[in-house]
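Q: Hi! First time doing this. I have a protein sequence and I read that you can turn it into a structure. Is that right? Here it is:
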Amino acid sequence: MAQHDQDRDVGVVTKKRPARAMERPKRYKVLLHNDDYTTMEFVVWVLQSVFHHDDATAMQIMLHVHRTGIGVAGVYTREVAEARVAQVEALARQHEFPLRCSMEED
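A: Yes, that's right. Below is the predicted 3D structure, encoded as structure tokens:
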């Protein structure tokens, strides 16, 4: 926007400050770790009930965890990831499985 001083014939250009872009929150991967005791059925159930995956996706993730030792259950903001990790660990303890769940920055 330009303002003009007619007495001095001088123009001044003013700019609006750009709106500060909101930074996207960091994202965290929630990881499931394979063990020799937790059943595949329990892992699939956890993926469906805690992470809201459909049957096919839950089965695919569970098989990936089984074959490679670790797999991503989901990617979330820090608070949501922390809550999901706690929920998985509580369910595993409740059902007497040693299933480990962790999170790391995406």
